[in-house]
Specification:
By secondary structure, the chain is α/β, with parallel strands linked by helices. It has 18 helices and 13 strands. The chain has a 5-stranded mixed β-sheet with strand order 4-3-5-13-8. Strands 10-11-9-12 form a 4-stranded mixed β-sheet, sandwiched between helices. α17 packs antiparallel against α18. It starts with 14 loop residues before the first helix and ends with a helix.
Length: about 425
């Protein structure tokens, strides 16, 4: 997802306290491969997508390396594109390579990597923390076993140009109808007559799956039931997709967003070419630097037809590869990487969403990040993308079906699009 992709850190107060809780080795069992022993100390690698924070990840790793001579961590950055990251991970783990030790997995990849035993089961009793938001913790669980732990989470919010709304005398909208009215009123100003309305990530990539899922989930639709049976073909799903199509056909969602990934929309927002932007919270730090606090702000995403908006749960998890030779060090690093100190650092330095519920109410953090209560509510209301072992195929089908429907509104009925996508997902099941 995008610049990405996104997910969680656990608690463990001060560094010394975290490290004190880490045993020299632990044992975990996998269904197919028997016990996994967390043994071996020495250098390891931390592998993730491209760091867009200007070196903040490396700076944090440098702190670990200074405190742990002989157990140094090397940062390996992959592509900024989620699909390319996944391919790189799979190519490495399929051959049981020891080049990757601890990897950052998009939460929807966990099932695939766990089912194939490319990553090892983790000791839940050593990693569980009741302060971790429950929906976030569950993203690392596959068939009731822990295979990954969140180190940052994510849910979208609505960024808006506060200065433009003030010019037009418009209050911050809370509903989709109010969003459309606000767009009309701002466009009535000569200097903003061509401004984009409500933007999102609608290019044909993972961002489209996230954004389209939100309209479908908000309408009451869905992709799979708890037993992983396809339930997409419903009147609710059809209604949700129609809302999205109407946004394009009526001009409230700019056609330019058909080519937007996260940073493209942010650039348009900061340039004054977009009024509202559905985006991940990392943008806050960028906007604060580029625009200043007087020109933008953050609000909850709007309800649609009286239904509360259902955001997509994003984020990334730590997992330890089967091929890692120094699993004791890897586990120690994971505990440190998800600890409270790392959580605070990631929020303050990178504007990543914390996994610990208590941090959303922290007075010190609220002064610097006043949007945290809005983000917490978004996380609590969020739903995940399909947790499928074959997720790569699932998201490709979603994108292949929905992109033409929004690219050429009216070319196919939303009912036909949903029916066709449902059929294709069922074929994957078979």
């Amino acid at each position: 997802m995008t610049p990405l992709p996104r997910r969680q850190f656990i608690q463990g107060s001060a560094l010394a306290a975290v490290l004190a809780s880490v045993g020299a080795c632990s044992t975990s069992r996998g269904d197919d491969d028997g016990p996994v022993t967390f043994e071996g100390t020495g250098p390891i690698t931390w592998v993730q997508g491209k760091d867009n924070s200007g070196g903040k990840v490396q700076a944090r790793i440098d702190e670990w390396n200074k405190a742990h001579p002989g157990e140094e961590v090397k940062l390996i950055e992959l592509s900024a594109e989620a699909d390319q990251q996944r391919t790189s991970f799979i190519n490495a783990v399929r051959i049981n390579s020891n080049a990757y030790d601890v990897v950052s997995l998009d939460n929807v990849w966990v099932s695939e990597f766990a089912a194939n035993r490319w990553v090892v089961e983790l000791p839940e009793d050593e990693l569980k923390n009741d302060d971790i938001l429950e929906p976030v913790w569950k993203t690392g669980v596959y068939k009731d076993k822990l295979f990954a732990v969140p180190f940052h989470t994510d849910a979208p919010v609505m960024f808006y140009r506060k200065d433009f709304l003030k010019q037009a005398g418009v209050a911050v909208p809370k509903t989709w109808d109010e969003v459309k009215t606000a767009i009309d009123k701002v466009r009535a100003l000569p200097e903003h007559k061509n401004i984009g309305g409500f933007g999102g990530q609608f290019a044909k990539y993972e961002g489209l799956t996230c954004c389209a899922s939100e309209f479908i989930h908000t309408a009451g639709g869905g992709f799979y039931d708890p037993d992983n049976q396809v339930i997409l073909d419903s009147t609710e799903s059809v209604a949700g997709l129609q809302w999205l199509i109407d946004g394009f056909s009526q001009g409230y969602i700019p056609k330019e967003s058909l080519e937007w990934k996260e940073e493209d929309g942010r650039n348009a927002f900061e340039a004054g070419d977009l009024l509202f932007y559905r985006q991940w919270p990392y943008q806050y730090a960028n906007n604060k630097k580029s625009l200043g606090p007087d020109k933008f702000d953050v609000a909850a995403l709007p309800s649609i037809d009286g239904k509360p908006f259902v955001p997509t749960l994003g984020g990334h998890n730590c997992a330890i590869t089967k091929g890692s030779k120094n699993k004791a060090t890897a586990l120690k690093f994971v505990k440190w990487w998800i600890g409270e100190d790392s959580q605070r650092y990631s929020l303050k330095a990178q504007a990543n969403a914390p996994i610990l519920g208590s941090l959303y109410d922290d007075p010190e953090l609220l002064k610097e990040f006043p949007y945290l209560p809005i983000l917490k509510k978004s996380l609590e209301n969020a739903k995940s993308r399909p947790q499928a072992v074959y997720y790569g195929d699932v998201t490709a089908k979603i994108q292949d079906s929905i992109y033409p429907a929004i690219q050429q509104p009216g070319s196919r009925s939303s009912k036909d699009v949903i029916a066709g996508l449902s059929s294709n997902l069922k074929k994957l099941e078979g």
